[in-house]
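Narrative of accomplishments. A recurring question from our advisory board has been how the design workflow behaves on a single, concrete structure rather than in aggregate. To address it, we present the structure tokens for one chain from the evaluation set, followed by the sequence designed for it. No filtering or post-editing was applied between the two.
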């Protein structure tokens, strides 16, 4: 079977897309032309594929002649630790950090019923989204 590249977190998708594109000798402009979009639009998707819709990611995979294969864990080839680290596995975001307990007397602590834990509301990213 061909090489497999397990993707478990979104930051791992970026280097995989770049690797497939480069291994085929394609530039971002080449892939963009296959997709019918500008090079800048494709560059934004490749830099942050987690912001793109699944349909757009699948279109990119098709343009790169790559199949998406889903498998239960343990059946895919294990990524070696250097691949995981370079693919963003070693990076941690704010969501991975444990929340600190609220100090008594703060507005958050007073507004919560006794015995409950205050949870922060997660707001969707308000940055620029997809444009193609």
């Amino acid at each position: 079977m061909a090489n497999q590249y397990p993707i478990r977190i979104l930051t791992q998708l970026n280097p995989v897309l770049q690797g497939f594109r480069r291994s085929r000798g394609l530039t971002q402009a080449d892939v963009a032309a296959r997709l019918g979009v500008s090079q800048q639009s494709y560059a934004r998707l490749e830099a942050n594929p987690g912001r793109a819709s699944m349909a757009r990611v699948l279109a990119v995979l098709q343009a790169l002649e790559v199949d998406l294969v889903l498998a239960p864990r343990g059946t895919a080839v294990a990524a070696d630790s250097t691949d995981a680290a370079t693919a963003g596995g070693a990076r941690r975001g704010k969501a991975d950090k444990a929340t600190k307990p609220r100090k008594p007397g703060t507005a958050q602590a007073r507004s919560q019923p006794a015995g409950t834990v205050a949870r922060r509301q997660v707001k969707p990213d308000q940055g620029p989204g997809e444009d193609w």
